[in-house]
Design a protein that fits this description.
The chain is mainly beta. It has one helix and five strands; from the N terminus they run E-E-E-E-E-H. Bound molecules: zinc ion.
């Protein structure tokens, strides 16, 4: 499962709540998973609204504990891995 690091933009929530969440990347499209009517689901089951967050190259600031606990490995995997060497 490819994952992307996302963070809510300043002003959406207080600075202390701007943790780095993980959102699943759909392998077929290379885009973030999106549920129409809900938003972009984080692993910790928040639904982020379009244009409310930025996609990061890596963890910045505080990582979201609950997202990390639900990620498939102890270390968050690299974001946006689209091709697998065979
Ligand atoms: Zn989270």
């Amino acid at each position: 499962m490819a994952l992307a690091f996302v963070r809510l933009r300043p002003g959406i929530v207080g600075e202390t709540k701007r943790t780095t969440h993980l959102v699943e990347v759909v392998a077929e499209t290379g885009k973030l998973m999106f549920l129409p009517g809900f938003g972009y689901p984080t692993l910790c089951t928040l639904y982020l609204q379009p244009n409310s967050f930025d996609i990061l190259d890596g963890v910045q600031g505080m990582p979201c504990d609950r997202c990390l606990l639900k990620s498939p490995s102890p270390e968050p995997p690299p974001a946006l891995v689209l091709d697998e060497a065979s």
